[in-house]
């Protein structure tokens, strides 16, 4: 895991991490406050997902309109991972990010480059049965708070 206070870029997965999936964008409990925490504590927040830009912006806009995400989330940096071209989400694909000063929050360890796993913060995958009892974003606030630069 990255050293405390050294993180400049926080990379968030979308499906299974923040929402169930793009087709059924059920949000995790506490999403709005979690996103605000991330923006206030990390110099840079990006979304790295297999969901293409147009569909992501549509989901993000809906999340903002329903009050589940802060207004800035509509314009958050978005990087599309094409799993057909690359087996892993490579943090070097994030323009200007230094791998050693970047953390990725993802529900699937299989998509994190094995050489970058020390930069990975695990989140339990979201599923339809758990929204009412899901405390993962609260747990992550504590974990990420230890790594925050600001």
Walk me through the structure:
By secondary structure, the chain is of the alpha/beta class. The chain has a single domain (9-141), classed as Rossmann fold (3-Layer(aba) Sandwich), CATH 3.40.50. The protein contains three helices and five strands, in the order E-H-E-H-E-E-E-H. The protein has helices at 31-41, 53-65, 136-147, and strands at 9-12, 44-49, 77-80, 102-106, 120-122. The protein has a five-stranded parallel beta sheet, with helices on one face. Strand 1 (9-12), helix 1 (31-41) and strand 2 (44-49) form a beta-alpha-beta unit. The longest helix has 13 residues, at 53-65. The radius of gyration is 14 Å and the shape is globular. The model has no long low-confidence stretch (mean pLDDT 91).
Number of helices: 3
In CATH, the homologous superfamily goes by the name HAD superfamily/HAD-like
Numbering strands along the chain, what is their spatial order in the largest sheet? 3-2-1-4-5
Using the coordinates above, name the CATH class. Alpha Beta
Helix content estimate = 10-25%
Large-scale geometry: globular
CATH topology: Rossmann fold
Spans of at least 5 consecutive residues whose pLDDT stays below 50 are none
The percentage of residues in β strands lies in 5-15%
Instruction: Give the H and E element order.
Output: EHEHEEEH
| Biggest beta sheet summary | 5 strands, parallel
Structural class: alpha/beta
Write down the Rg: 14 Å
Average residue-wise pLDDT: 91
Q: Which architecture does the CATH hierarchy give at level 2?
A: 3-Layer(aba) Sandwich
What is the count of structural domains? 1
Number of strands: 5
**Separation, N- and C-terminal Cα atoms:** 18 Å
């Amino acid at each position: 895991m990255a050293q405390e206070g050294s993180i400049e870029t926080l990379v968030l997965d979308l499906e299974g991490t923040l929402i169930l999936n793009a087709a059924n964008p059920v949000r995790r409990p506490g999403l709005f406050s979690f996103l605000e925490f991330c923006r206030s504590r990390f110099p840079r927040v990006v979304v790295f997902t297999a969901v293409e830009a147009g569909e992501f912006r549509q989901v993000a806009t809906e999340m903002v309109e329903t009050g589940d995400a802060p207004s800035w989330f509509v314009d958050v940096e978005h990087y599309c991972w094409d799993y057909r071209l690359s087996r892993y989400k490579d943090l070097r694909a994030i323009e200007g990010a230094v791998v050693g000063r970047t953390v990725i929050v993802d529900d699937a360890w299989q998509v994190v480059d094995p050489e970058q796993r020390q930069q990975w913060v695990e989140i339990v995958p979201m599923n339809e049965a758990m929204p009412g009892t899901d405390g993962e974003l609260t747990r992550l606030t504590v974990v990420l708070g230890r790594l925050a630069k600001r």
